[in-house]
TrEMBL record:
The lineage of its organism: Eukaryota, Viridiplantae, Streptophyta, Embryophyta, Tracheophyta. It comes from the Eukaryota. This is START domain-containing protein. It is found in: Nucleus. The keyword 4Fe-4S does not apply. The keyword Transmembrane helix applies. Keywords: Membrane, Transmembrane, Transmembrane helix. Residues 88-115 are annotated as: Disordered. Gene3D superfamilies: 3.30.530.20. One of its GO terms (molecular function) is lipid binding. Residues 138-331 form the START domain. The chain crosses the membrane at residues 24-45. Its main location: nucleus.
Length: 421
């Protein structure tokens, strides 16, 4: 250390740069020598996996370098980390088998290949774990239980560690088959014409695969007055597992449609169903009812507390319009009205065998559902006043998104402090 300080002092004493150059060389020489010595010692004692990264492969193994194999990398990991990789590899192997089966049945177009990458069997595995309560996520908190004469509805919510709040709902429709409900939810044309989903104002099919039924769709949805409309680029696909239909719908990137300020693009979007026959609540002993398990979350670009408040207040108003829409759809099908293009695509499903389920049952953790605790009415009123005032103030001021975000942030902090009291 003393050598370094004295060398620096000698450099600073030189009146010119040419005079300081020899002193700087004397100072840098030992440092470079130390760096080279460290490299030589590190190379001499390098681990085995590091040698495989730079060693030239033999001619016989040129087609498959040692560091490119999954087994090689798994061997470098501890034993407790190998099991999850093994289960993921099993899912990937099943996905490859499914794609091979699709290609044998009739080939694939370029659009089909891109869609199968966007919505594949891994998405089916994630939805299956959600349906079975084995995704290992936080506990679900019950938030709603309503009913109509021919419909029963329950809803739950949970807050993920990162990302928007997640919702689960169960809708049971009397006197309906899974096939009718599947076509009903997949029929975009009927959504708009019947207006049971009055938020959907525009839809267009961008790509479709006649072999797998995968679709790439452009949606524009209408939001309340204080928010601009939202734009979605979604991919959806339906599998049939046993007697149930697993419908995966999620947002995907799309470079062919440029982004605009209005409507605002929603990138994070997930809305998937499991549609299956269940026993009627009338107690007649027959499976004449149909249950729809929905799992939904999206990042709408709104503060999460505001979004949760709006969803909770408007949820039942939107849900109760589904039941008369389904009955109108049943009547239209019974009257022989032509089936729309999107409904025909919903009828193209990929069948999955029981072996896929058995490969998932070994590595799934349980997730519980709990009842929401009733909060004091005074705290609830205070939260509504604070959040409602923030919305009104943000809509009144025309100072751009930064001012509105600041107002929402202050309101959210205030509500969070009241919840902690």
């Amino acid at each position: 250390m003393g050598y370094v300080l004295s060398a620096v002092a000698r450099v600073l004493e030189q009146p010119t740069a040419w005079g300081a150059a020899p002193e700087m060389a004397l100072l840098a020489g030992p440092l470079w020598a130390a760096v080279l010595l460290g490299l030589l010692l590190g190379w001499a004692w390098r681990p085995r996996w590091a040698a495989g990264l730079v060693a030239a492969p033999a001619p016989a193994a040129a087609a498959q370098p040692p560091f490119a194999t999954l087994g090689f990398w798994k061997a470098q990991l501890p034993a407790r980390l190998r099991a999850p990789l093994g289960s993921a590899a099993a899912v990937r192997h099943g996905e490859e088998e499914e794609e091979d089966e699709v290609s044998v049945r009739g080939g694939r177009s370029s659009e089909a290949g891109s869609e199968e990458l966007a919505v594949g069997k891994r998405d089916l595995a994630n939805l299956w774990r959600l349906v079975e309560g084995r995704d290992g996520g936080p506990a679900w908190i019950k938030m709603m239980d309503r009913s109509l004469p021919t419909m029963t509805y329950q809803a739950w919510r949970r807050d993920a560690q990162t990302g928007p709040p997640q919702y689960q709902s169960s809708s049971i429709f009397e006197d309906a088959t899974p096939e009718e409900v599947r076509d009903f939810f997949g029929d975009d044309e009927f959504r708009v014409s019947n207006k049971w989903d009055d938020m959907l104002v525009y839809h267009k099919t961008l790509e479709e695969c006649q072999t797998t039924g995968t679709m790439k769709v452009h949606w524009v949805r209408k939001f309340p007055f204080f928010c601009s409309d939202r734009e979605y680029i979604i991919a959806r696909r339906i599998w049939k597992l046993g007697g149930a239909y697993y419908c995966v719908t999620k947002g995907i990137p799309c470079s062919s449609i440029p982004r605009r300020n209005k409507p605002r693009r929603v990138d994070l979007y997930y809305s998937s169903w499991c549609i299956r026959a269940v026993e009627s609540r009338r107690g007649n002993g027959g499976s004449t009812a149909c249950e729809v398990l929905l799992f939904h979350h999206e990042d709408m670009g709104i503060p999460y507390e505001i979004a949760k408040l709006g969803i909770r207040q408007g949820m039942w108003g939107c849900v109760k319009r589904i039941e008369p829409g389904l009955r109108a759809y049943q009547q239209a099908r019974a009257a022989g009205e032509p089936v729309s293009r999107s409904a025909l695509m919903a009828q193209i499903n990929t069948k999955v065998g029981d072996s896929f389920v058995r490969s998932l049952e070994s590595d799934s953790d349980g997730s519980e559902t709990v009842e929401a605790e009733e909060k004091p009415a005074r705290n609830r009123v205070a939260r509504f006043l604070v959040l409602g005032g923030a919305v009104a103030l943000a809509c009144t001021l025309d100072q751009g998104l930064l001012t509105k975000a600041l107002i929402f942030g202050v309101a959210r902090k205030f509500v969070g402090q009241r919840k902690a009291l």
